[in-house]
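Researcher: Next entry in the queue.
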Amino acid sequence: MLRHRIIRRARQLVIAMYAIALLGCAALVIGPYLNDRSIESNQGRALAQVVNVGSYRTTVDFQDDNGIYHSPATGLLYPTGLGEGQKVWVNYAIDDPDLVKVEGREWTLSVVPALSVAAVASAIAGLLWFAVGLIAGKSRNPEVF
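Model: Structure for this entry, 145 residues:
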């Protein structure tokens, strides 16, 4: 009886971890979608210069429509393929100039990475589910879930 409870709890843990991973995958797509929607609802356009290309963020300097210079601390959205010193057109949210993206790039760029993470999470969850079954041995109770 205790053995079946442990197996059931282990499988519930696998399901919970898998659900959390899929929620993270959804957030990988929903976040950029909401950012793009915020930018498009009150959009400004500027020519920016790439100041720094780091492993975690790419920073730019740009001047808004009021002549104020901005260098968003959170970096640039969708910075792939940019180099330091490069000039690039950006779109930004006028009411929040720290929310800035490369012009022409959209939230749909986040779909492939999210699907990749979901595929890896599915494989790991499947392997863990199988491992719990192997560790448990051949259970006589097929309703261990």
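Model: The first strand starts at residue 43 and ends at 53.
Researcher: Noted, moving on.
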